[in-house]
Amino acid sequence: EAGVAQSPRYKIIEKRQSVAFWCNPISGHATLYWYQQILGQGPKLLIQFQNNGVVDDSQLPKDRFSAERLKGVDSTLKIQPAKLEDSAVYLCASSLELGSPYSYTFGSGTRLTVV
Amino acid sequence: DAKTTQPPSMDCAEGRAANLPCNHSTISGNEYVYWYRQIHSQGPQYIIHGLKNNETNEMASLIITEDRKSSTLILPHATLRDTAVYYCIAHGGYGNNRLAFGKGNQVVVIP
Questions:
Q1: Cα(A110)–Cα(A93) distance, rounded to whole angstroms?
Q2: How confident is the model at residue B96 (pLDDT cuts 50, 70, 90)?
Q3: pLDDT tens digits, one per residue of A16-49
């Protein structure tokens, strides 16, 4: 089966610019996650969707980050405006349903560098 | 979810069994132990999970102590491709939505 697709693979922007990341989950996976992974740390959950509804966005910095999952399939994560501390790898994952970590599949991520 | 403790790094010899420890002394009765690994420049990959019985699959074996306060992930014949960061996570099962990763254990397989 095809994996979780993410684009772009790399992005370099200046601080205060905007950026968007795209994710296409595995077909049939109802739950989609965005994680932020800062160098040397484990991934941190930013937001979680069940179909096209938000389940958990408690760790999303809502003053600058936004995400949507239109039609319950693809998702976009946006940062506006970016700060230096947003430099990280942004990982998208999908799973069959809530609370089934054995079915999590991660994409390879987008590496963002803010200069 | 209960906190887990892993060594920050370890080396193991190619072709030998690699035993990766994890402490989870505050784990509650409904929390499973999950193991993921992250190879450089890739996203994390699910390996195995268990509640209280030992588990084995094509990738690894998971040994959980009887008191469930610690576990060991065993890679039976380590290869260079097993070099990765390994994460041990205690997770509360269905309905608990957040899979929380720590810093993990950087495992290097040495030829």
A1: 12
A2: low
A3: 999 999 999 999 899 999 999 999 999 999 999 9
Integer Cα distance of B90 and B98 in angstroms: 11
Please tell me if residue B40 touches chain A, with a CB cutoff of 8 Å.
Answer: no
Q: Do B49 and A42 touch (CB under 8 A)?
A: no
B contacts of A35 (beta carbons < 8 Å):
101
Average confidence score pLDDT of chain B: 93
Percent helix, strand, coil in chain B, to 5, is 5, 45, 50
Q: How far is it, in rounded angstroms, from Cα A44 to Cα A46?
A: 6
Prior bond to B111 cis, omega within 30?
A: no
Residue B79: name the closest of B108, B45, B42, B57 by CA.
Answer: B108
Strand order in the sheet with B32-38: B9-13, B105-110, B84-91, B32-38, B45-50
Task: Give CA–CA dist B96/A98, Å, rounded.
Answer: 7
Closest CA relative to residue A109, chosen from B38, B86, B76, B61: B38
Mean pLDDT score of chain A, rounded to an integer? 93
**Which of B1, B96, B98, B106 best tests the A interface by mutation, with the highest count of A CBs <10 A?**
B98
**Taking CB atoms and an 8 Å limit, are A101 and B89 in contact across chains?**
yes
The answer to whether A15 touches A82, Cβ cutoff 8 Å, is: yes
How close does chain B come to A50, measured CA to CA in Å? 10
